[in-house]
Specification:
heterodimer; A: 120 residues; mainly beta; seven-stranded mixed sheet; four-stranded antiparallel sheet; B: 110 residues; six-stranded mixed sheet; three-stranded antiparallel sheet; 0% helix
Chain lengths: 120, 110
């Protein structure tokens, strides 16, 4: 079955960078875009953007543009989200998700989430 | 890319029905039949409950239904059960590859 498995929790200092991975299985990795979302403690879901795993094209939300990079390793069926110049407000659970892989025009498969804590 | 507007909280008793609204604009909710709804229990990843405004994925209870009128979408849960207590988020496609979420609604089943 289709599955996304994310890397473990991270603790980083302000100003540092963090890279979260999302390993996909159960489908042809290059046929679908991988989306990234985040959720600060007690806050709403926030869509960050996506990467087309077939051609590497990316799209970012206005808020994410500039400090976020999405990459993929197609040989490993893995997507990555790297966030630089970390600030305390970047403390959140980061999710990868697939849109419309099951025939539903929505986020129908989610990773388990990765907690990123930014603290000095 | 403004967030869609949802009530912060709603509540109901077991067996009752509740409706959660989700208001967007003519550029997102009002333009595309691509509103989806997600249920999120504490510490868990969101789960898809409704897609394309009104459709239910396989395995989701028929107590959950979606509707839309103009720039406002709604999620109705009938026959409330204790396990329905969760946060609910709406989401809409907003064109140009962009997606926007609502602020979330906490449902309490009293």
């Amino acid at each position: 079955q289709v599955q996304l498995v994310q890397s473990g929790a991270e603790v980083e200092k302000p100003g540092a960078s963090v890279k979260v991975s999302c390993k996909a299985s159960g489908y042809t990795f290059t046929r679908y875009s991988m989306h990234w979302l985040r959720q600060a403690p007690g806050q709403r879901l926030e869509w960050m953007g996506w990467i087309n795993a077939g051609n590497g094209k990316t799209k970012f939300s206005q808020k994410s543009q500039g400090r976020v990079a999405f990459t993929t390793d197609t040989s490993a069926s893995t997507g990555y989200m790297e966030l630089s110049s970390l600030r305390s407000e970047d403390t959140a659970v980061y999710y990868c998700a697939l849109y419309d892989i099951s025939g539903y025009s929505a986020f129908d498969i989610w990773g388990q989430g990765t907690m990123v804590t930014v603290s000095s | 890319q403004s967030a869609l507007t949802q009530p912060a909280s709603v509540s109901g008793s077991p067996g009752q029905s509740i409706t959660i609204s989700c208001t967007g604009t003519s550029g997102d909710v009002g333009s595309y039949n691509l509103v989806s709804w997600y249920q999120q229990h504490p510490g868990k990843a969101p789960k898809l409950m409704i897609y394309e405004d009104t459709k239910r994925p396989s395995g989701v209870s028929n107590r959950f239904s979606g509707s839309k009128s103009g720039n406002t979408a709604s999620l109705t849960i009938s026959g409330l059960q204790v396990e329905d207590e969760a946060d609910y988020y709406c989401c809409s496609y907003a064109g140009s590859g962009i997606v926007v979420f609502g602020g979330g609604t906490n449902l309490a089943v009293l």
